[in-house]
Specification:
Order of helices and strands: EEEEEEEEEEEEEEEEEEEEEEEEEEEEEH
Radius of gyration: 20 Å
Number of strands: 29
Helix content: under 10%
Shape: globular
Number of helices: 1
Distance between the termini: 13 Å
Length: 469
């Protein structure tokens, strides 16, 4: 996800949207998609809105779902869930930041995908920070269960989260990081609020670390989910990747890799995909603040975890559109999927600070890097921006737009082609662009632009992250 990348963060008009009750067919034993929350067979789009004003409480936060249909997302059908919603634990309070990070998965294997949403600003007078599971159902997201730091009251909780079956027992687990710790929370998770044992993976080999990002996926060839934590080592001031290999005995740290000195984890995002189809998942890290103009760092997968041979891709890499300029923010966000049907996952890279045309406004764009037998390269890379035919919006904005601040690759209409979703939070008004997929990749022709006014929102920041199906 993190996004990190995983989330599209939005600030809601408190009275602009009201929860909808949706009816869908009965679900099967397991969710077909990890983002089908009502079991109707269509993918939905979850939006984490950590800046939402709810019940007069500023920055209380909310989660918005745009429901899917046979024709793709239907913006007219939306649901808003906050801590003031019936069945959701807690109460909307100022600066809870509910929805800061979200990921989606069928956590309890009931056939409906669920949303796991963090609220790092939550403060009940004892513990700070929580994450909440919003349970999917035939009627949508109608109930929730909250989880707090298993031990520490003052370290915050759930700065970032990832999900996966890391101990190969058939139940989904959650990894959540606080200011200093990596928490492994075993499944099964239930609607009653129960979960399995919690394990603290800090300190690691006696190191003190600031964990920032956790990303999950299958890196080794054993078929079990693994995860990687990205953060800073206090003692050396190095930005590192700590890799945990999943297995029947539970995840174990098997490797740590230093990132290049040019890399920055400030507002970074990450994803895992097998870009060269050699059976090992590769870790791609997008660093918008890295070097001059940003960069993407690819750590190829091996039997023991991410390789120490890190490939750096910037706008100076052969074939990549554009040239590195200060504040281009190449690597604003990353998302992976096969966009052209060749079997190799590709990488969408946000370039939110890109200057287009003769003005100095940073209208932004999205670059798609192609996977291949040699991994990600700049060959046949393509940029999508406001100069792309069919994409609504002017190429020469009268202010910054930030297109590509957050990106998502996903087949939203079930036609077998991967669509591109990209936010432009700084445009006036803020926008969400949906570019349909084709056999050769996303296209601006037939694309849709959803505005904040049309969605009943007041700002957009990030798209959510999730495990691939």
């Amino acid at each position: 996800m993190r996004r990190r990348t995983a989330v599209v963060a939005a600030t809601l008009l408190a009275a602009g949207l009201s929860p909808l009750t949706l009816t869908a067919p009965a679900s099967a034993a397991a969710a077909k998609h990890t983002d089908d929350f009502n079991g109707d067979g269509y993918r939905d789009l979850a939006i984490g809105d950590y800046g939402a004003t709810v019940g007069g409480k500023k920055k209380a936060g909310a989660v918005v779902v745009i429901w899917g249909s046979s024709k793709g997302l239907d913006p007219a059908r939306r649901t808003v869930v906050s801590q003031n919603s019936a069945g959701v634990p807690g109460a909307a309070e100022t600066s809870d930041f509910f929805g800061t990070d979200i990921t989606t998965v069928d956590l309890n294997k009931d056939g409906y995908a669920d949303v796991v949403a963090t609220a790092p600003g939550e403060d009940d007078g004892a513990y700070t920070g929580t994450f909440t599971v919003l349970w999917g159902s035939k009627s949508g997201l109608t109930s929730g269960s909250a989880y707090k730091n298993p031990k520490y009251k003052d370290r915050g909780f759930a700065k970032d989260i990832a999900v996966g079956d890391f101990d190969a027992n058939g139940s989904q687990d959650v990894v959540a990081v606080d200011d200093q710790n990596i928490w492994y929370l075993r499944g099964p998770f239930t609607e009653s609020g129960s979960r399995g044992k919690a394990t603290d993976f800090d300190p690691i080999d006696g190191e003190n670390i600031d964990p920032e990002i956790v990303v999950s996926g299958k890196v080794t060839k054993d078929g079990t989910a693994d995860f990687a934590v990205l953060g800073n080592d206090w003692d050396t001031d190095d930005d590192r990747v700590w890799f945990y290999k999943g297995g029947s005995g539970g995840p174990k740290q098997t490797k740590k890799v230093n990132l290049p000195s040019s890399a920055s984890l400030v507002e970074a995002g990450a994803t895992i995909a097998d870009f060269d189809k050699n059976g090992y998942g590769d870790l791609a890290v997008g660093g918008r603040r890295s070097g001059k103009g940003g960069g993407v760092y690819v750590l190829p997968g091996t039997s023991t975890g991410p390789s120490t041979s890190v490939k750096t891709i910037t706008q100076s890499t052969s074939g990549v559109p554009g040239t590195p300029e200060s504040a281009d923010s190449f690597g604003s966000d990353v998302s992976s999927a096969d966009t052209n049907g060749d079997g190799y996952p590709d990488l969408a890279v946000g370039v939110a600070g890109e200057v287009i045309g003769d003005n100095w406004f940073r209208v932004g764009g999205v670059t798609v890097l192609r996977g291949s037998s040699t991994g990600l390269t700049g060959k046949n890379a393509r940029m999508y921006d406001y100069a792309t035919a069919g994409v609504e919006g002017a190429a020469n904005e009268d202010n910054d737009a930030g297109l590509g601040d957050s990106v998502l690759l996903r087949d939203l209409n079930g036609d077998g082609h991967t669509d591109l979703v990209a936010s432009a939070p700084q445009a006036t008004p803020g926008r969400l662009h949906l570019l349909p997929g084709t056999a050769t990749g996303p296209t601006g022709q037939g694309s849709r632009m959803l505005t904040l006014d049309g969605l009943g929102l007041t700002s957009l920041t990030r798209l959510y992250a999730q495990l691939a199906d």
